[in-house]
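Chain A, query sequence.
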Amino acid sequence: MAEETGNKSAADFGIGVPQKNELYELKGANNYDWGMKDRLSRVFNPKSGKTVMLAFDHGYIMGPTSGLERIDLTLRPLLEHADCLMCTRGVLRSLVPPTLNKPISLRTSAGSTVLTELNEECLGVEIEDAIRLNASMMAVMCAVGNKRFEGLTVRNLCKSIEMGNRYGIPTLGVNAVGKELTRDARYLALAARVVAENGAQVVKTYFCSEGFEQVTASCPVPIVIAGGKKVPELDALKVARAAIDQGAKGVDMGRNIFQADDPVAMIQAVRHVVHDNAKPEDAFQMYNDLKTS
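Chain A, predicted structure.
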């Protein structure tokens, strides 16, 4: 407690200098609470406004996945190069060092696996556990257009958003696209808009080669694209470049990084595209230069 006497009188009031009120310029986020903005600013690089998320939550529906058989061996060298880690709480607690200090997009929906019918999910993680794990986002699957599970997954999404708003944790709405649905601009725009209209602060969806700018333009919050199945490295870099050019605010890649011939070189090449606006060919050259023989 300060003493009652002998204190230096306050004098530097900056009279005549207006207080600077900085805007948080992430798409759609200006009116969020401070804590939510703080968490989002960890996910999205403050300089570029974009993010390279590393997704390795595949095991929650697929079990051991190629490249993720031993996460402690294959993923550990990649973590430092990612802006944000998307994983489950089981892997986070058991294999991700807390000293890494990376923002976490925590997979909080859970349910059916590839052994049965996908998309029958619930909210498998309570908000208290997300808080204990210091999650920067909660990732919830939403199956817009699925005849059986659309309503169920939208309800899961809305519940996550309500809990997240209460405690200042954003929700990442993950658009799931079933085999019966076409990944075109019309569908992707509808699905992304539905997720955003229900209150998700970030949307993860797929890229389409025609009309993707319509998807991003009609979505009032940031979109990050899913990497999807493994493709040749140059093709993956071309998709990342095209998505960013058409309004995406980042990528959430998994298999196209950890299944690459050299995952550490690949994630750095992806960063070069996303944060440095590199051409795919230049990033691919960087990949080959960094690639270990």
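The beta strands are 51-55, 84-87, 104-107, 109-111, 121-123, 137-142, 171-175, 202-205, 223-226, 250-253. Residues 147 and 178 are 10 Å apart (CA to CA).
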